[in-house]
């Protein structure tokens, strides 16, 4: 098992970023087609028809958000920057070696779209079930 760590700087403040991560409306803007929360679980629905029920493990308002995600542990840590923005660190623990390359690249896609939405109100995804990650499209 491996750990993935990525950092990204966002011009948006921690509250804006936290709201994108922790609300169904926010997650649908940059991550999944749908991501409703019911009883402490996020019901992710992706363009390729894949679904996953993710348990929310820890929430500290505007600072941390942890969840079980495809049988691994994902942690988002938000730190306010000196200019009002956010330094976000994503840590994904317990990633299977056989899935490391795909998951590692997948997080870059998710984080860059988070930046596009948070800082520029622009969703880079195509939302086309015929053009998904599994078919080689990075704008899934």
From TrEMBL:
Give the source's domain of life in one word. Bacteria
Instruction: Enumerate the InterPro entries for this protein.
Output: ASHA1/2-like_C, START-like_dom_sf
Pfam families the record matches: AHSA1
The segment(s) forming the Activator of Hsp90 ATPase homologue 1/2-like C-terminal domain are 13-117
Q: Do you know which SUPFAM superfamilies this protein is assigned to?
A: Bet v1-like
Please state which protein family the record places this protein in.
Belongs to the AHA1 family.
Protein name (Swiss-Prot/TrEMBL): Activator of Hsp90 ATPase homologue 1/2-like C-terminal domain-containing protein
């Amino acid at each position: 098992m491996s750990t993935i760590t990525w950092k990204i700087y966002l011009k948006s403040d921690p509250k804006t970023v936290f709201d994108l991560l922790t609300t169904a409306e926010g997650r649908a803007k940059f991550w999944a087609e749908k991501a409703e929360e019911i009883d402490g679980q996020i019901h992710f629905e992706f363009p390729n028809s894949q679904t996953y029920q993710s348990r929310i493990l820890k929430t500290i308002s505007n600072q941390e958000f942890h969840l079980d995600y495809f049988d691994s542990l994902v942690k988002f840590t938000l730190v306010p920057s000196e200019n009002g923005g956010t330094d976000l660190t994503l840590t994904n623990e317990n990633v299977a070696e056989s899935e490391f390359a795909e998951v590692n690249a997948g997080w870059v896609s998710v984080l860059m779209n988070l930046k596009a939405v948070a800082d520029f109100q622009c969703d880079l995804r195509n939302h086309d079930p015929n053009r998904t990650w599994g078919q080689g499209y990075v704008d899934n």
